[in-house]
Amino acid sequence: MNILAIIPARSGSKSVPNKNIRLIAGKPMLAYSIEHAKGSKYINRIVVSTDSEEYAKIGQQYGAEVPFIRPKEYAQDESLDIEVFYHCLKYLEEKENYSPDIVVQLRPTYPIRNPIDIDNMIEMLLNTKEADSVRSIAPAKELAYKMWFKDKNDFINPILTDIPEAYNMPRQKLPAIYYQNACIDVTRGKTIIDNYSMTGINIMGYVMEKNYDIDTEEEFRKAEEYLKIISGGNRFVFDIDGVIANLVPDNNYSLATPNVRIIDVINRLYSMDNYIVLLTARGYATGIDWKDTTVKQMKEWGVSYHELHFGKPNADFYIDDKMMDLNKLLTMFN
Prior knowledge:
Layout: E1 3-8, E2 23-24, E3 27-28, H1 29-38, E4 45-49, H2 53-61, H3 81-96, E5 102-106, H4 115-127, E6 133-139, E7 148-150, E8 156-158, E9 178-188, H5 189-195, E10 203-207, H6 217-230, E11 235-239, H7 260-271, E12 275-280, H8 291-300, E13 307-310, H9 326-333
Parallel strand pairs: 1-4, 1-5, 6-10, 11-12, 12-13
Antiparallel strand pairs: 2-3, 5-9, 6-9, 7-8
């Protein structure tokens, strides 16, 4: 079975200049999608469709084929995916007599994706004959049931009307809504060629919780930080109480309980070959020696670390130029 990954990499991005080849954690953005395709157990051909000779060389350097330079008419700001993919498939058919059974679209603006998701989506299509395609989707943060159209006279009408006055209902009683996150699209080749469509009619959805699509400088920085962390070799210093351990009255640390969520994150960071240091103010103000209790708790709670230090000064506020917000770290890994 021919399963083709196509990575559309047009030059000329306006929001983040040359974002498709911009270096992120030491590699061009385009390289990551090529590596993701290589990580799939099903994909057996990878093609980059680009209008740029420079992008083409980078694609080839990282192991993709670039059998053509995309014509300018299919590389405009308003060019549609179907134009790009139809051109690619017709070229391969006419020049090589090659026709893919399944086409996987991997946009280069996603430097972070799991090849397992690619394979899961391919399997969904392989196992569901009536499906034309599978799209990656994510839970919508804002409900379309509470969104409106506004006319020229300032009157508004709800976007969705299948539930009467849904806009007046609590969020909890409304159906879950998903949006297409543009991370992975899997389509039958005949859907593109015969129906001139990227999806066809019968579309399945594959839910993804994490999204790292890059369209702004802020999103670029967020993705780069995550890639730096998961690549290992970073040094993390964690406070214990209020972070690893839940706070207890009167600083009686023998009663402390573990913060399971942050311990899971610490252990994942440790497994990625990051260096973990624990730093605590236990006993700084009172002079009580909490070392044995602390070491025992870390062992019982399953905390993986390299160093444990006492003597952190007690304070009401800590200001540091390398401070990372705890909720930000939890969001990144949960």
